[in-house]
């Protein structure tokens, strides 16, 4: 005789993708980046975001980007010289410096299987190099891979890393009680055609592996 097994399936509507993805730079680092600790869960609360911002991007005192509050961050570095089939490289912070999600690991595989075999490099990227970036992306199961359209930061941070000339405008926002207020500015980031292609390929890989965007796993970035 066979054994009866109850199977429960949870279904929810996938989140609507935003028309414009906005990331806000915040100064601060995690003490144990590879561990999902209760301390980090509590610490994330001080990095609250307010619409229309979708994610934060943490930087250290050298301006190097590490990760978001619930996502990993990648940068598209264009080729130095235009060559046939050379679309540049995808950069992510070195191992051991961030909490890695499964989607970030899957992106590495997608880069390797891409027609032009996109290099996936473990390298820091500094905020001061923003003018050289071909694009910025954030990855998580609730988003897949999204290209960033706008980066916000305090005017002080923009000045520190030589970005004031790139400022497209000032951010108008209401002061929030209990939060320190600083004037913020916005910078536009180009939409990377490579990130757009990788996003489609990544979504296909997620479906094939039954890891559908929209279902959070054990890690906030998985």
From TrEMBL:
Alphabetized Gene3D superfamilies for the sequence: D-amino Acid Aminotransferase, subunit A, domain 2 (3.20.10.10)
GO molecular function: catalytic activity
InterPro entries, sorted: Aminotransferase-like, BCAT-like_C
Protein name: Uncharacterized protein
């Amino acid at each position: 005789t066979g054994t009866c097994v109850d199977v429960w399936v949870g279904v929810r509507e996938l989140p609507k993708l935003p028309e414009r993805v906005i990331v806000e730079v915040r100064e601060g680092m995690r003490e144990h980046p590879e561990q999902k600790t209760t301390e980090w869960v509590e610490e994330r609360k001080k990095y609250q975001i307010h619409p229309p911002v979708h994610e934060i991007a943490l930087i250290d005192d050298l301006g190097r980007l590490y990760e978001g509050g619930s996502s990993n961050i990648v940068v598209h570095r264009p080729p130095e010289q235009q060559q046939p089939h050379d679309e540049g490289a995808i950069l992510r912070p070195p191992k051991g410096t961030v909490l890695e999600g499964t989607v970030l690991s899957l992106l590495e595989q997608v880069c390797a299987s891409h027609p032009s075999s996109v290099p996936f490099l473990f390298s820091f990227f500094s905020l001061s190099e923003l003018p050289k970036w071909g694009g910025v992306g954030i990855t998580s199961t609730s988003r897949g891979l999204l290209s960033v359209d706008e980066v916000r930061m305090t005017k002080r941070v923009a000045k520190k890393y030589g970005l004031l000339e790139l400022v497209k405008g000032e951010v108008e926002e209401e002061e929030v009680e209990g939060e320190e207020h600083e004037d913020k500015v916005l910078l536009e980031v180009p939409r990377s055609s490579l990130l757009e292609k990788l996003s489609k390929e990544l979504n296909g890989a997620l479906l094939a592996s039954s890891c559908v965007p929209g279902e959070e796993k054990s890690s906030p970035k998985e």
